[in-house]
Specification:
With 455 residues, the protein is α+β, with helices and mostly antiparallel strands. The chain folds into four domains: 112 residues, Tumour Suppressor Smad4 (Sandwich); 172 residues, P-loop containing nucleotide triphosphate hydrolases (Rossmann fold); 65 residues, Helicase, Ruva Protein, domain 3 (Orthogonal Bundle), CATH 1.10.8; 49 residues. The protein is 33% helix and 22% strand. The protein contains 14 helices and 23 strands. The strands form six sheets. Strands 1, 2, 3, 8, 9, 11 and 12 form a seven-stranded antiparallel sheet that branches. The longest helix has 23 residues. It is globular and about 80 Å long. It starts with 16 loop residues before the first strand and ends in a 7-residue tail after the last helix.
Length: 455
């Protein structure tokens, strides 16, 4: 009989440990102390531990009051992090309902009609870190990214379906492209389908193709994305946006590896690899009834989560220098120190995509005073901490997109005013300084009510 694993004496040892060639995570055990599954227990064997009634979870319960994917415990640098996955009946910690919390040894979790006890163990999970700071066009020197890079050679060499999760702007598409280019299918096509931008009435034809006359406007037969990707890879971008009525049809394709064009009965065999990306947690979407659980299981063969930029601050300087070299043609190839200092203090809700846009704006501001005033704000102009546009009270009731558009408009107005002032009000000089077409600059100035002379 195997000996019982030793319990950690304190939560301090629960932290993630980064070593030169590997990353180590503490293991933990979850035991059901009350409920239909009392006595059951499971020990973690990965950095995520999902509890629920669905197959594929690390701890599978029969409690009918528990959701398919009820909650998840993750090992993070700050400790063991519990997060409810939008479960129907919620998760409690020591009797209080919580959305997310860090766990201490002996913590009692309530889910459904069951009580679970959490205990960290004196054992570790070790995973190799990649030696390089890039994989394909994806950059990163942080442990979080090197952990992904360490796993990618094995993933790329296989033909398994891959699900890549991460917030908007984290580089999920680039990572998918890097997997394809490092795979045996690199010589084949890489076809991207944006599931969120195709009208629901057209998505079936886009994916599967159609025969001539299959519907109004189908004047000729056309191959769909799956056929076009024969011998290569299909990227299903933002998979969480796929309409519910299309999901069983896609599931059938993934299982049978064949499609039927609209208007035909003859199947076409497929030779493709599928990679899917999503900015949503599909487990939560399954709980909400927005995503089919069987499709999720079929996609979730290999799962990668790309961390948000705020979770990998070690990469900000590397990415800033990379983008600066790309964009600063003919200028000093090193980003100014004040630029790096400003960027290191920001949270980057738009992630790497937002960072690249910020570097591009900074490159356009050749004059240091212009940079400080337009990007860092009035405090930055005095040498203090950089200031970001703060949301106004009337914007807090808007959607994120609308509030962001208003903030960008305010930034543009500030930038244009400083640009014109720095160039003595001369439109032509301002356009050259900003490397912008003169007519486009004139349109922006008119839109924001900023005046400049035409000379």
């Amino acid at each position: 009989m195997a000996s019982e694993p030793k319990i950690h004496p304190s939560a301090e040892t629960a932290l993630l440990k980064v070593r030169s060639k590997e990353i180590a995570f503490s293991r933990f055990r979850v035991q059901v102390t009350a409920g239909p599954d009392a006595g059951a227990s499971q020990t973690s064997d990965a950095t995520e531990f999902v509890i629920g009634t669905a197959p594929g979870n690390q701890l599978i319960l029969t409690d009918r009051a528990v959701s398919r994917h009820h909650c998840v415990i993750s090992v993070t640098p700050r400790g063991f992090f519990l997060r409810d996955l939008g479960s129907k009946n919620g998760t409690t910690l020591s009797g209080f309902r919580v959305e997310a919390a860090y766990l201490l040894p002996g913590a009692l979790l309530g889910i459904g009609q069951s009580t679970l006890r959490f205990e960290p163990l004196a054992e570790e999970i070790r995973e190799p870190l990649g030696d390089e700071e890039r994989y394909g066009r994806v950059l990163g020197q942080s442990a979080a990214m090197r952990r992904i890079f360490g796993a990618l050679p094995r993933i790329a060499a296989s033909d398994s379906t891959v699900l890549i999760e991460g917030e908007t702007g984290t580089g999920k598409g680039l990572l998918a492209e890097a997997i394809h280019e490092s795979s045996p299918r690199a010589g084949g096509p890489f076809v991207v389908i944006d599931c969120g931008s195709i009208p629901p009435t057209l998505i079936e034809a886009e994916l599967f193709g159609h025969a001539k006359g299959a519907f109004t406007g189908a004047q000729a037969a056309r191959a769909g994305a799956f056929e076009a990707a024969r011998g290569g890879t299909v990227l299903l971008d933002e998979m969480g946006e796929l309409p519910l009525d299309m999901q069983p049809k896609l599931l059938r394709v993934l299982e049978e590896r064949q499609i039927r064009r609209i208007g035909t009965i003859e199947p076409t065999k497929l030779d493709i690899r599928v990679i899917a990306t999503t900015n949503r947690d599909l487990r939560q979407e399954v709980n909400r009834g927005n995503f089919r659980s069987d499709l999720y299981y079929r996609l979730n063969i290999v799962r990668l989560r790309v961390p948000a930029l705020r979770e990998r601050p070690d990469d900000i300087a590397l990415l800033t220098a990379h983008f600066y070299r790309q964009l600063a043609q003919g200028q000093d190839q090193s980003p100014p120190g004040e630029l790096l200092e400003a960027f290191m203090r920001q949270d980057w809700p738009g992630n790497v995509r937002e960072l690249r846009g910020a570097v591009e704006r900074a490159v356009l501001m050749i004059d240091p005073a212009l940079f400080r005033e337009a990007v860092m704000g009035s405090e930055g102009a005095d040498g203090g901490a950089p200031a970001l546009p703060a949301p106004r009270d009337d914007e807090l009731s808007l959607s994120f997109r609308e509030a962001k558009e208003r903030a960008v408009a305010r930034w543009e107005r500030t930038f244009l005013t400083a640009l014109v002032r720095a160039n003595g009000g001369n439109l032509s000089r301002a356009a050259r300084a900003a490397r912008m077409d003169r007519s486009h600059l004139r349109e922006l100035l008119q839109r924001h009510g900023v005046s400049a002379t035409e000379a």
